[in-house]
Amino acid sequence: MSEKESWSRKLPQGYQDILKSIDDFFQQTHERLVDHPLFTPTIPIRFSRGTSELKIEAELPGVDRKQITIDVYNQGIHIKVQENEIKDVTNDHNQIRRRSETHRIRERFIPLGFHPTESEIHARYKNGLLIITVPLRTERIDIQ
């Protein structure tokens, strides 16, 4: 018997129950936090800038094209990925059926500093890589 077990068994049953419920609370909280949206990774993005365009590459492995939406705002682009997963587990021996559904949304806003129109922006998705091309609008100002 370890020191922890001997210490906790010396307590009255009511205290043991309280300690067990505290342990269970923190264990369940930890399991839920792993899938909490606050702790999910954002969409990884790489930028490359040419002379006339900005290329944005978003890594989205395992995502279907239908799960991706791209919105254009006044001075930026919003990428949104909606992932839905449904698991059905049936145990014929015990006649137990368990169904769990997971809905997860990942988003990323990319500020541009200028207002692009939808017709100017081109996006393509292949093999888990979303590539968005935006023409640059730069004007050089002469200094007098």
Automatic annotation (TrEMBL):
Name used for this protein in its record: Hsp20/alpha crystallin family protein
Q: Which family does it belong to?
A: Belongs to the small heat shock protein (HSP20) family.
Superkingdom is: Bacteria
**InterPro entries hit by this protein:** A-crystallin/Hsp20_dom, HSP20-like_chaperone
Supply the SUPFAM superfamilies for this chain: HSP20-like chaperones (SSF49764)
Which Pfam families does the annotation name? HSP20
Q: Which residues form the SHSP domain?
A: 36-144
Please give the Gene3D superfamilies that the UniProt record associates with this protein: 2.60.40.790
